[in-house]
Design goal:
By secondary structure, the chain is of the alpha/beta class. It contains 11 helices and 10 strands. The longest helix is centred in the first third of the chain and has 17 residues, at 61-77. It is globular. It starts with 16 loop residues before the first strand and ends in a 16-residue tail after the last strand. Mean pLDDT is 85; it is low at 3-7 and 330-337.
């Protein structure tokens, strides 16, 4: 799915959606808290040992990375039973721009060389644009809406917004959002630089449902917009002087052309791609994981994640705030009801 430049404004009456599970399949990063830096540069997920196993046979590299990240996130959220399954209407939203490009290129090369009769029936399903989301849903029996967002650098933030909308609209009881990009020769050739194995999954649930089952909420997805520039996007996300941003997740180019004025003059800023390399469709979902680490650590201020900017067709902005359990009371803020 290629998302348009439609702005999704914050609705104060909408059902709150929170992050309850996070899973990484990212070399050199052991936990999502590491994303706040400095990165250890070693440990974490090992593709040589982590991408093998009977359940991963006949799947492309991006699907295998996504399955591992989703597994870790569902366990972290406490949503899997002894058989690693979750019952209920659970959406799967995947963000990837180049995830199965290697499978598509391999199939076209085979057709050019040997015709359609040369295609393997085991490999052909890997050419579907929704294959990664499909494998995650099949593996964990997630029987809700299932889609892939392929929208350039804003794709990860767009996917989080789509998942939130599905929950708020009552189309799903929960959602697994996966951002994934593989390291392979095809991706490296397209990017013009060495690619990065990167997969991250977050579980989103309504705040009331998470509280009723005693789940630990890490962050609230509060506002989102995709617009022509950051200044226009901020107008719809809920960033105000009364609710200041403590952490801004943005790249150098996006920050330089922000035009956001005093609202973003003081926050700490982290550029994940400068530390991890090109992340493409995985960027926004990794930013969400970093935001959760910041908020549950008790730091001051909200978190703004942005992607895109002057070099791209649009800018996406996602505002994340503390979950209900971590918000200061009116008395703590020195206010009266």
């Amino acid at each position: 799915m290629n998302a348009t430049s439609t702005t999704h404004t914050r609705n104060p009456n909408a059902r709150e959606v929170v992050v309850t599970g996070i899973g990484l399949a990212l070399p050199g990063v052991a936990t999502y808290g590491d994303l706040l830096g400095p990165l250890p540069g070693e440990g974490g997920f090992d593709p040589a040992t982590g991408l093998i196993g009977r359940e991963l046979r006949h799947k492309d590299r991006a699907s295998r990375l996504a399955l591992r990240a989703a597994e870790f996130a569902l366990h972290d959220a406490g949503l899997t039973d002894a058989d690693d399954t979750f019952t209920g209407s659970t959406a799967v939203v995947v963000s990837t721009n180049l995830g199965n490009a290697d499978s598509v290129c391999e199939a076209t090369d085979t057709i050019a060389r040997a015709g359609v009769m040369g295609l393997s029936p085991l490999g052909l399903p890997q050419t579907s644009s929704n294959v990664i989301a499909g494998w995650v849903a099949i593996r964990y029996r997630l029987r809700g809406p299932n889609l892939t967002v392929c929208n350039g650098v804003t794709s990860g933030l767009d996917a989080l917004a789509w998942a939130r909308n599905l929950i708020v609209a009552g189309r799903a009881d929960a959602a697994v959002v996966v951002g994934v990009e593989p390291a392979n020769d095809v991706v490296t050739k397209v990017l013009g630089e060495q690619s990065t194995d990167a997969a991250v999954a977050v579980v989103l649930e309504p705040a009331d449902a998470a509280a009723s089952r005693g789940a630990r909420s890490r962050a609230t997805i509060t506002g989102y917009a995709r617009a022509r520039n950051l200044a226009a996007a901020l107008a719809s996300t809920g960033v105000t002087e009364e609710a200041p941003v403590g952490l801004w997740l943005a790249d150098e180019a996006g920050a330089a052309g922000a035009g956001a004025g005093h609202l973003l003059a003081g926050p700490r800023r982290i550029d994940l791609e400068s530390q991890l390399g090109p992340l493409s469709g995985a960027l926004g979902v990794l930013q969400c994981a970093a935001a959760a680490a910041y908020l549950e650590g008790g730091a001051t201020g909200n978190v703004l994640a942005t992607a895109g900017g002057p070099r791209h067709d649009a800018t996406a902005a996602l505002l994340l705030t503390p979950p209900p359990a971590l918000r200061p009371s009116t008395q703590e803020r020195g206010q009266h009801p």
